[in-house]
Amino acid sequence: MSNFLNAYTALSPTSSRSDVAEVLQSITNALPLQIDDAKRGELIQTIIDDLTKSNANGGKKSRLTARDAAPALQAVKSLGKNPAGSEVIASSANLSALISLSKTYKDDLDASNEAIRCVANAMLLVEGARTTFIQKQVGGGDFALELLEKSGIPERIFLASRLLFLSTVSMLSAGDFIKSLVEAKPPGHPGNITEIVGSKLEVLTKAILSSAKFAREAMTDLLKFTFNLLLHYPKLVDDSNNKNEVKVMGDCWSDRLDGILPYLLRTFNTLPPSFPAPLVAPMTHVIHSLITIPVSPSLRNVWFPPNTNSRGSPIPSSKPSGSSESSSKASRPSSNSSSQAGSPTGGPSKDPKPGAFDRAWSALAAGRRSLSRSSSPHASSAPVDVLLRSYDLLDVSLNHYMPGTVDPDDVSVRDKCRKETDQTLDDVMTPLAVLITKLCQADEGSRLRMREWILPEDLDRTSPLEGRADLLGRLLRLLASVHHAKLKNAVGEMLYAVCDSDAGTLASYVGYGNVAGFLFNKGIMSAPPPPRGSSGASAPTTTASGVPINPITGIEEKPTPPIEMSDEEKEREAEKLFVLFDRLEKSGAIPKESNPIRKAIQDGKLG
Fold first, then answer.
1. What is the mean pLDDT of the chain?
2. DSSP string computed for 355-407
């Protein structure tokens, strides 16, 4: 167990560099159980002390020289993957030493990055290290922020973001640090945290589009840090009267953070499609950050840019030039999953516009061009259509995990999502549904557009809506899901918002039977009254061709053909009824005066 420590301490300042490298490599490659906890801690401390001595006196009295810094720090990192080792690294003195080493070896990126990784691993495994890191005597918070601001390559941005993310996880222990990050510089000034984060999002978007190494990981951790700021800072500065009330995400906001929204929307619109899973990090983390930001008066024109249609929603880019169709028809997206072409639930498609994947690739091409021109979030000529982008992601993602008419509770759905993302469908899809709900609740135009896309006037109602192989069918099947409780509720709330938050409108569009469970959970115990659409668009009672819609199923009412019976068949049926009611009367189930057959005989209606 002590062989590794003995081998290292046997080295001297006169040892050959090859011997030093061999010992350090053996420590790095050691299996977890080959070194006990006590020796592990002693070995880590000895290496850090030697690195510090090497840094102080040029390596004259140390086993290590500047050339040994990278492999030595790699050995410390390997030893620190065990919590017992991280406890040693997490001390104030050792965190300060590693930060100092990272600065000293700034021209040796391998050594500098390894020092930061040692700190990040300790902060991940030892919760107390997160608080120690941002203490004034260590200075880790200032170090991480400066590192983020000055870094231009994805790997360094990743490391800085990881440090900032871990140090801002807890609002309780990091509250003062979070406030200092946001309030150090006023909005719009260089060095303001939203400007720093926004500029790095632009850098990383370019890097992702060019498939640079560490770009996706860097953006993911940068967005995790951003989410912490957006979640915690508004609560820290909340001046509401009821301080004892528990605040949840979205209850509080500060206009100091307004500047981050344009950058997030630009990133949301520009990130390229991912395969095979269409919704993965960092896109999922962009969505997490967006749902914390309200549609406040100061941000309304950012969420819904001025270049919008008459109802205040963005004009979708899918509208063909020179089209003479109405804006609502032109804005209706069509994808492979929702197209009626060749579908048993519909006729030929009337609107051969680009599908969701086509629009995604078009956005990617546009993103490459716009990012090559400018890194400003306001530089793009085309407004960000966040609703259309969200709809596309929802449509494509549900089609991916629930192809055709697959039941959402089928084991293949859960297995596929777990295999591709290591998460549940609830975790992957629910935030996106929440984002669409937020947009529809805040903007009437968004509600109208979503309703036109999901529930168009010419919707085929000849077969059950929940059996459709398109987005509407998948959403309705999710409402009956057992295994995806969070997504089930989020989809219900989304459809409810799309239908003006009116239970009658929702039931009229999709049939009360499809939403009865959801409405019951909202406290609506029976079929709701006739709809009262607030947007001026009444819910349908007939199809486009004038056929009545069944209020329970949401499909066309089919006339019931008259039952043809001979006189002998009628007599046999009457006898069966007579015998049935006679038994009920004799058993006491019904009183004599309530027997309809006896009453009919007494009234002379039966011979």
1. 85
2. -HHHHHHHHHHHHHHHHHH---TT--SSPP-HHHHHHHHHHHHHHHHS-TT--
